[in-house]
Design a protein that fits this description.
The protein is an all-alpha fold and 273 residues long. The chain is built from 10 helices and no strands. The chain folds into 2 domains: 107 residues; 139 residues, no CATH class.
Length: 273
């Protein structure tokens, strides 16, 4: 019990830290930049002009190649790690205003965000160190190893289903405007509120659709024993591009991802932290 109380007390102190709040708000700006670049890569993939990965890893590498890019990556990494600490405290002692299933859902979502923010922050550091490899290739190699083991294909299929479920949940979260519960909407004027609502709906729907497609492709990879399909978001974007009207659908999705990037800038100001 004492360990639990100590962990809770530490999480509470972190949650109430002014410095953590400032770093977290800066982190939202970096997170927005990453998604703007992600959207740009998706747009290039839509019309066949990109050899870079169509995911956040590719966005970070693209940023690292620019003048002062590595310095910006360090700043983004610090912000992302601050966001991870914030969400970890939310998972432990946060979401007090919510009850029942809603609170459980928000805590689980906070755990997922911790994983995402830590992974992106670590990826940014590896890019700075010139050690970032192609994450899609790594995912394919891991899938091949898992499929070679007993029960590995079932594990891969389960991971794909979880990812698809997260994506579908993200679409619902956006279309139902549930993200507004975490914003200081009372501090927005009507025009800003309307803009933020539209950006959030488009952004969450686009990101969720990409995650859902990626998850379904992983399931297909497991069923057909085809690890090449298990390449995450990059494979999802390229698969969508190759369908009828795919380039235009992917271009629309790229705009949605970019919209989420702009939405993150507003979160920097209006998110409840």
């Amino acid at each position: 019990m004492s360990v639990t109380r100590n962990a809770g007390a530490t999480a509470t102190r972190a949650k109430n830290s002014r410095w953590l709040e400032l770093l977290t708000r800066a982190g939202f700006i970096g997170y927005g930049i990453v998604h703007l670049l992600f959207g740009w890569l998706a747009l290039q993939i839509a019309f066949g002009n990109s050899g870079e990965e169509g995911n956040q890893n590719g966005a970070l590498r693209t940023l690292g190649e620019q003048p002062l890019g590595k310095f910006v990556l360090v700043v983004i990494a610090v912000g992302l790690f601050a966001m991870a600490i914030w969400q970890a405290s939310e998972a432990l002692v946060g979401h007090q205003s919510k009850t029942g299933k809603e609170r459980v859902f928000e805590r689980i979502a906070s755990v997922v965000r911790v994983i995402i923010f830590v992974w992106l922050g670590w990826t940014a550091i590896k890019v700075v160190q010139d050690a970032s490899s192609n994450s899609s290739d790594q995912q394919q190699q891991l899938t091949e190893k898992l499929m070679a083991s007993d029960g590995g294909r079932w594990l891969v299929a389960l991971a794909g289903l979880v990812l698809a479920a997260v994506g579908i949940g993200m679409v619902i979260y956006g279309l139902k405007k549930k993200f507004e519960r975490n914003l200081k909407t009372g501090e927005m004027n009507p025009k800003t509120h309307k803009l933020v609502r539209r950006l959030g709906m488009a952004g969450y729907a686009a990101r969720g659709a990409v995650f859902a497609i990626a998850g379904l492709l992983i399931v297909v990879a497991a069923v057909k024993y085809d690890p090449e399909k298990a390449r995450g978001l990059d494979a999802a974007l390229r698969t969508l591009r190759d369908q009828a009207y795919g380039p235009w659908l992917l271009a629309l999705m790229a705009l949605g991802i970019a919209a989420f990037g702009v939405y993150c800038f507003f979160q920097s100001r209006f998110r409840k932290v």
